[in-house]
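This part of the workshop introduces the protein records we will be handling. An example says more than a description, so a record of this kind follows:
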Amino acid sequence: MDEIAINGQEGMLFDMTAVLNPHTSMLMMGSYIDAKCDIALNLRRNFGLAYFEDIFNLNNLILPQSHAKEVSVEIDISKFGSNDCFDAIATEFDWGVTTVPLDFSKFQLFVGDDGLLEQIRFAFLELHHQLLLCRKCDMEDLFKNIGLSFPDIHKFLSAETHSDMISALPVTTGTPTLDDTSIASYVAKIILMRGALLTSISVILANCYLEHENFDVPHSIIWAFNFMCEDYEEAENLFLKHPVSLKQVNSIICQKIRSTQNISLIKSYSEFLRKHCTDVNVRVKAYRCMLNLLVNTNMYKEASKLVQEFMETEIPLNNLQLSSLKLLHNYCLRNLDKDHDVLTFALPIKETYSSSSESDAEE
């Protein structure tokens, strides 16, 4: 059916369509960005590794394409939980953190976003049961399989005052004490630091392998990794030394923003785009992503600043999603009497939108 539908479009002829898993897709993206990229190591979700192998090294493989010289080979590292290397470093605490409900492997538990959040949730509950954390409070929400989110932990660890930390602790009822915030902060930071250490070790080992095998990691991928890890100084230095195509990494940054809802990452990326990006398409896609997220999370003040920045680029507002602009426009009108500095702007005429830009689907 897909083939018939695609072939029905003028100028589009396909003999075959394929659905690729994340690892092969990452490998193809890397090789598209840089022809020297021969390996993809996925350390986020759906953990895996894929690489290009010379067909002459695969004796029993028969391909219908006789001209093929290389094939993509995937190594399933999602089952590393049974690997002796990971079992050897697992502590009694690690064995207590169940990986079954969320279909984790030990590898994901140690370095994955969801795995680290599960460790923190488990530690909080254990301390709560032992009356060492929030003993005068209820923490019923943490009994759910996914009881903690990245915004929860980010809000707690980035709190500037004790009162903010107390209000950010994930309790259902009751008021935590200052001791509770100190204990929770210590536990969360220790777990995240260990995750960061194990991640860095994984990256170092991967880099050693790449250097040994004479693989090249594209500068754009390294830049994106540094930026998403919020190592902005390193990303800035790399960008100034080596040309990085923002067109190629923009979708990666936007996906990170959507998945983590990290507001500080939004601010940093918009600032980076103002300083370094001249590609209108990159700016439009990035600002659409960031505006939609801010509006959907009711962060209208931040959304107003973002639209103000976008208007200063003199790119027409009809490049942004109309539904998000309407919500922001209504917010500004409601608060105009309270705040005379609130952003005012005219909504684009609906007829100026193309069918693709008018769609509410995320890019």
Q: What stands out?
A: The beta strands are 39-42, 48-54, 70-75.
